[in-house]
User: What shape does this take?
Amino acid sequence: MTETRLYIDGQWQSGATTVENRNPSDLRDVIGQFAQASAAQLDEALAAARRAQPSWWAAGIQKRHDVLMAIGTELMARSEEIGRMIAREEGKPLAEGKGEVYRAGQFFTYSAAEALRNHGDLAESVRPGIEIDVRREPVGVVAIISPWNFPVATPAWKIAPALAYGNAVVWKPANLTPASAIMLAEIIARQDIPKGVFNLVAGPGREVGQRLVESPLVDAISFTGSVPVGRGIAAAATANMTKLQMEMGSKNPMLVMEDADLDLAVAHAANAAFGGSGQKCTAASRLIVHEAVHDAFVERLVAAARTLKVGHALEQGTQIGPVVSEGQLQQNLDYIRIGQEEGAELLCGGERLERATPGHYMAPAVFARTRNDMRINREEMFAPITCVIRAGSYDEALAIANDSAFGLTAGIMTRSLARASHFRANMRAGCVMVNLPTAGTDYHVPFGGRGASSFGPREQGRYAAEFYTTVKTAYVAAGVPE
Assistant: This one.
């Protein structure tokens, strides 16, 4: 794969510069040199999107439905091919890559149906002789900034509703995963859509990204990434009163109560903590365990972590691939050091691993004897690292879980219906799970968090309309027929 192009105003273009893309499972494997846009190319894309958006809205709901169905169907049909590229450039095991692409296809087919369901409302006026209707119209030009950890699924759940509701899109993908971004863009570009409705503009965040979020031509920004970057985007967007939707950091707790099925709890905790090398905003990085089962749970979790196979993402049997980059690996190792300096007990993992191919491999780590005020329990690590906190009761465990700046996902392992119901009502998080991993959500219901985890309307499902549309209320005095 050596594709270097950007997609702007219906045309593939070379960039002003390029960045190298290497396989984190095998650093000898250079995937290609990928385009980086200039400021002028970004401006061209924004102007094209502004011109094209009215004609896409005028194309009508059947047209938008058909286009999105075609995109979704092709993604699902090519899930292995594109999933293999995700595994190669991002490092998640092939099965996870395939699943991600298939899910991306489902986002498009779901949004295709939503295009047909973009209905309004009728209301009675308090004044005689007046009719009222309330309708949803596109917000306009949407800037989409997506991360590297789900390089196809995350942009899909943003691009699909944006197009379904009649908007134009300027997409800035992550520079660490450009190849899969181009594969998605090629599928969209092949559709019968007006030139400029969809644009792929890769580039450095400090230049292209900053210019994008500051542009007065952008009506809305959908961002997934870190809290510091999100805060910067919010500050930049304020000048233009640009509509914002942001999904950011997390520090997701999983409560393990004394009545839990311990084998199930360990399986779900390991899955949520270490799946995708812990590089998920929904990862379970705080395991709050009742003291009555604490020691038994920790013993089984450490045993499970040690049996996980860390290896090349495309190698059969690999359960955990490499982390995405050398910089990410060094940050992970720094958190191992920080945790030890804070007094946490490292029970397993946390070291760099050598494999047959040179890559960014790390053994999944379990910290015990941690406190909720430690940095490893306050900051998002985005690593295959999880921290166990001992709690003396359900009430204490819930208080610890809620003691966080974040509030994306949270889970509880219990056989008690009363505790499960109380947890669902009192856990301050956007998504709560009972006897399930904290990672793993459906595509047809809202996704998002509270506190520092999210800002603005929810993503996914019919709730996406709150962000990608604007509401218009029309009053009509038709008069008396003659």
Remarks:
- The radius of gyration is 23 Å.
- The mean pLDDT is 96.
- The chain is about 40% helix and 25% strand.
